[in-house]
Design a protein that fits this description.
By secondary structure, the protein is of the alpha+beta class. Helices cover about 20% and strands about 30% of the residues.
Length: about 325
Amino acid sequence: MQTNEPSNKQSHKRTVDGLLPLDKPTGLTSNRVLQQVKRLFGARKAGHTGSLDPLASGMLPICFGQATKLSGYLLGADKTYLVTAKFGAKTDTADADGRIIAGSVREEVRRDELEEALQAYRGEIQQIPPMYSALKINGKRLYELAREGKAVPREPRTVRIHALTVEKFDLREPVLRVRCSKGTYIRTLVEDIAETAGTLGHVIALRRLSVYPFGVGDLVSMDELLAAAEGGLEALDRFLLPLDQAIADWPAVYLNKEESYYLRQGHSVNASPGPEAGLVRLYDGRRLFLGIGEVMVDGRIAPKRLFPGLGAGPA
């Protein structure tokens, strides 16, 4: 029997706009954690920025509602990791979740040898994406091909390692701190470092500490969310950050009532004197976030991505 009444599951979903810097636990896929959080908040729309492998933990920004329009900027942000490498063996997935496919008689690397190897991977480097990755080639993800036992040629990609240091030294299982650009594969980096040091290696632990501008102090654990859920949705909503926090380092432009009106209609407005050409945060006369604008070379501001209805909070 068909019915026009909404299902109980759908009727409980609500509009939520905001950002949640979630501390993803190990052992779960990023998508599974996303679905758990989405259900917890009763949100109609949510997405995450930048998958973490099941083995990995740490910063997984969750974007609710209109915040999903900002996901691209977070995907392109610099990231910081703590990674534990294990020397002496290579796995098919480049981490401890895979099977060992090669071993090395050398299972230890001295501190000076490790430091010398790290030097080769600071700054701009070339990486070949691993087969076990979400990168698509000819419409199919590489990890799907890898599970079928297939390997395909991959073009090297340019990434930047801003900082690469030894956090905790161990001859067999050192902990490294990496601050890097978007698109960096930490598993590949560990494999390459091990090879440069004269051995084989893979990742046995990985934690993402930050996705700029969010850092360790912003992290919210699943345990915190579950405890807050006992107090209802209002208690959960207190963990949400406003959308403009994702681009808090951008220049801000405050518009008067007339300028805000025309901008919302899709028109550019004068912003003299204003910031130099580039992307800016836009606010109205009440200092409410309007969205993203672009300052043109002639000083006018054109709307690039607006967020209607903000300021009322989750509903």
